[in-house]
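Appendix B, example 12.
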Amino acid sequence: MERVTLSLPHLADLTDDELAEAYAPLAEPWLRVNFVSTVDGAAQGGDGLSKSINNAVDKRVFDSLRRQADCLVVGAGTLRDEGYDVPRLPLVVVSRSGDVPETLRGAPEGRILMATTASASGLSDARSLLGDDQVMVLGEDEVDLVALKARLAARGWVDQLCEGGPGLFAAMLEAGVVDELCLTVVPRLSCGDHVRITAGPEVDVALRPHSLIEQDGTLLGRWLVASGPSND
């Protein structure tokens, strides 16, 4: 069998500064979503976690994106499922219920923000745990993601990084607030009924390829959102 060689930029050839430049935001504010998946589209391994399919190549870009971001936006369900600890950058928890995940309850003051709803059952507890200034009520029953992006930018957080989960990503696409998808495709297949990087009602969003980097068979792509969602 003939050996096929990909002619793509190689991650190992990039310094950390060059990698950061390769992933520089293209405007302000800029909201990007970062995911990893297998070649057949699974966003998790057999244990239901993304950690079981990522690798050292993905981890280098994952760390670089976090270093340059002003804030990290993650859905509460993903924070619980993946066992997130308190990151070094401000973490914005998106939750309709307003429930603060257990692993974040001892975080230093000001490090955790909550984006929730007026009807949230955990609203009072969130304010008590995090402080009134750290709880953003954005909508009656659903979190207004357009308002969230604007409120974060008003704080000076213009490089906004979201790590999902799939439901929040789909909602952000529907709201038209996503500027970019950073997608790592690991050279693996994962048969079975696994979650994809999006989950929820059907939303059709066009993407434009921006760049593609490779190392050891792992593909690291930047995809720009070309237009708003279409539900026709």
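The CA atoms of residues 161 and 225 lie 15 Å apart. The longest helix spans residues 56-68.
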